[in-house]
Amino acid sequence: MQHQVLHKVVRTVMVACALSMGLAPRYAWGTPISEEAFTDSLLLGEWKHHPERLDSLASLLGDDGITLTCERIQRIRSEIAFECMVGGNSDYLTELVATEDPCMPRSGGFAYCMASIHFNRNNYPEAALQYQRTLSLLEAGHYLAVNAQFNLAASLHHMGKNDAAIELLKELVLPDSKWSDHVSLQSVTFRNVIKINAAGMMVSNLQHHDALDILSEVDRESLNPYWRTLGDCNRYMAFKGAGQFEQADSLWLANIQFIPFNDLPEGVLRKTMDSVLATNQKDYLDGMRSAMASGRLSVENLPPHWYAALLASNLTEEQFEQNWELLRTNTEEKRQELQASLAYSVNPMNGDSLNDIQMHLDRASERIANWQWIALMMLIISAGIALIWWSKVRLKQRTINAAMAQVESESNPFKTERLAEQPMHVSLNDIRSLHEAIIKGSRIGEALRVVRKLEILQDEHEKEQQDMAFDAIPGIDSLTPLELTVLRLAARSIPTKEMAIQLALSVGHINNARSSIRSKLEIPSTERLSTWLHMAMLQ
Q: What architecture is domain 475-539?
């Protein structure tokens, strides 16, 4: 809201300045006159806007065939700047600015025009710089100085620098400031305008009590309707922000509810809806419905929950009453909470307590942040150690797998037969390989080969012992090779299914072989085959 108002104020002040000061009558180029005086002649003369002259003035600067003195270039630029300012035209800005140009006008009036052009383009940082330059070039009593300070405050406000903007406006209306004797500030209306704008910035800056103090100095009756409306709205917002809801509601009842919706500054209608509830003004809602129906009020200007709860066309009377009471209760609770919070914060002792709590919270937050960094570093270190360990384990596993594959390839039937032709034995080097594999974790492949060699030796030893024992069993020569193989596996207590898998036969084939063995060796059906074999080999 305040942004739009300030923009309108600045435009009003600039145009009023131009209207009252005007464009000088056409001049003779040869007339000796200073740059400052020439700019003043534009601003203080009988004003008339000549937009058609901008093209011809700009063409003079760009025509290489025309030789112009530096003084004439300065005056052309000053007139272009003035025409652009009063006409709101910024298309000729490039003709006004030149880096390190000795013919650039150095007067405060030219800087003021340039600042106003940038302000109209919403280029507030550059506008602020130019207004500051204007103030540095002009004396405090110059007719443009107050406007420059006022517009500088507006530029800073648009940039979000509310504290600096407020100080500039307060400085204009202080009774003992350097501006107190300025002719522009002798106008009560202009002083009130400055105070209203300063109050609006204070409300935006949450300085509600300061806003109420400066608004108490405003003579409301001396204002025109526009500024009276803006002053009332600023005062209402300050009352609400300060928790003075009774005063806010009284102001709403007395003045604000009678302001046409279109004249209310942006956002104020949203803020006044709780006063509608608090003062039980249901008729105001009927006016809002009529305004929406005629297009004078847009639903977008209202909070969605207000519209849905109180203004939607599909609400029944019963629903409206229920929503009205619920919202009234909720509004009252929120107001009480805000008043309690404001009352607590006003107490200096409470303020000290809050500062202590905030200080402890800040310290706790700092400690937590430090611990979070430590935990993060520990996590990174742990992850690095885990990655190194995992890499070593994986490398070791790959080594073992490669050694196992090599050993398995060496223990195929052809290798076994070759080893059988050459008697196998465990050497001292084999024992050393096992020792280093167990103690140091090295020479794993060689150790696995030794283990495989021991397994083969053990299998051969068991087979020799088993064959010697089998030779003593009556009827063993009558068994077929398959039956003899099944008998050996049974002696090792290998189940029938596993036999079938090892021999690549069906379970039925194995059972038939077992039955044939029992029949040929006369083994009773009541005894387990493995048990009978062990007893027979012991005998």
A: Orthogonal Bundle (1.10)
